[in-house]
């Protein structure tokens, strides 16, 4: 309880603003220390994304369907277990795409699930997966090794300048399962520095679709396909 202070509360408020675009009403309650992550992991169940893709937790004894791609994830504290609709939406669109000859960048990789899926779906080109959290980058590297999906380069990139430098190396497809505020900030950077790239993006709520369409029109993108689940959407876009 003594570790909670005004500085940490301000950090929480800043995170809420970044993630949700507002600061909802909340209150802080102090609880005894528990290994929340271990308790959460213990209750994770396999997620069948489609007839073709199955996500399981590390060391779970699961028999997949014939021909089903299995992605084994040890999530720790990272985003990308398949439990969130945006991850499922992105994976469903990826499995419909021809990924084999595409050089791919995965922005905000979390567990590395999208980069791993790309490799298991037949991609043979370089993949760069990055995050701005050390624990996420480390978790992604662990999952990449666990899934035997080589040649995925995981980096810590947390500045726009880092993004620009890497985009200029030339990418055919950019994956971005992040959030509205970050998409608003980085999509113009992608358009300027990787002008020929397709972008598959999610983390956008359905009621923000009009905003997204205006942004895409302003930047010169056309929508190839948008799919929906619950209140979330995922869009594949390319230069108009």
Structural overview:
There is one protein chain. This protein has 240 residues and is an alpha/beta fold. The protein contains eight helices and ten strands. A seven-stranded mixed β-sheet has the order 6-5-4-7-8-10-9, sandwiched between helices. Strands 1-2-3 form a three-stranded mixed β-sheet, covered by helices on one side. The radius of gyration is 18 Å and the shape is globular.
In a few lines, what is going on in this structure?
Helices cover 37% and strands 23% of the residues. It has 240 residues and is α/β, with parallel strands linked by helices.
How is the secondary structure organized here?
Elements: H1 6-20, H2 36-42, E1 47-48, E2 53-57, E3 69-73, H3 85-96, E4 104-107, H4 113-120, E5 127-131, H5 134-146, E6 152-156, H6 160-167, E7 173-177, H7 180-193, E8 198-205, H8 209-219, E9 221-229, E10 232-239
Parallel strand pairs: 2-3, 4-5, 4-7, 5-6, 7-8
Antiparallel strand pairs: 1-2, 8-10, 9-10
Helix pairs in contact: 3-4, 6-7
Number of individual domains: 1
Strand segment tally: 10
Distance between the termini: 54 Å
Strand composition percent: 15-25%
* CATH topology term: Rossmann fold
Q: Please report the number of helical segments.
A: 8
State the CATH class: Alpha Beta
Strand order of the largest sheet: 6-5-4-7-8-10-9
Query: pLDDT below 50 for ≥5 consecutive residues: which ranges?
Result: none
User: pLDDT average, as an integer?
Assistant: 88
Instruction: Bin the helical content.
Output: 25-40%
CATH architecture: 3-Layer(aba) Sandwich
Describe the main β-sheet briefly.
7 strands, mixed
Order of helices and strands: HHEEEHEHEHEHEHEHEE
CATH superfamily placement: Vaccinia Virus protein VP39
Structural class: alpha/beta
Give the radius of gyration: 18 Å
* Shape category: globular
């Amino acid at each position: 309880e003594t570790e909670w202070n005004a500085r940490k509360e301000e950090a929480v408020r800043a995170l809420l603003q970044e993630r949700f675009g507002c600061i909802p009403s909340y209150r802080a309650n102090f609880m005894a220390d528990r290994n929340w992550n271990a308790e959460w992991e213990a209750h994770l169940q396999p997620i069948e994304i489609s007839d073709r893709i199955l996500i399981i937790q590390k060391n779970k004894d699961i028999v997949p369907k014939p021909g089903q791609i299995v992605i084994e994830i040890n999530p720790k504290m990272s985003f990308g277990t398949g439990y969130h609709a945006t991850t499922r939406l992105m994976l469903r669109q990826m499995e419909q795409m021809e990924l084999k000859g595409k050089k791919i960048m995965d922005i905000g990789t979390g567990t590395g699930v999208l980069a791993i899926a790309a490799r298991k779906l037949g991609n043979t080109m370089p993949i760069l997966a990055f995050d701005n959290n050390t624990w996420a980058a480390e978790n992604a590297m662990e999952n990449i090794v666990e899934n035997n999906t080589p040649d995925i380069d995981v980096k810590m990139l947390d500045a726009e300048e880092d993004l620009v430098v890497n985009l200029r190396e030339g990418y055919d497809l950019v994956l971005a399962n992040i959030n509205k505020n970050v998409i608003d900030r980085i999509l113009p950077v992608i358009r300027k520095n990787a002008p020929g790239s397709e972008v598959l993006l999610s983390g956008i709520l359905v009621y923000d679709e009009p905003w997204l369409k205006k942004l895409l029109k302003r930047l010169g993108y056309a929508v190839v396909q948008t799919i929906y689940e619950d209140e979330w959407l995922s869009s594949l876009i390319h230069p108009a």
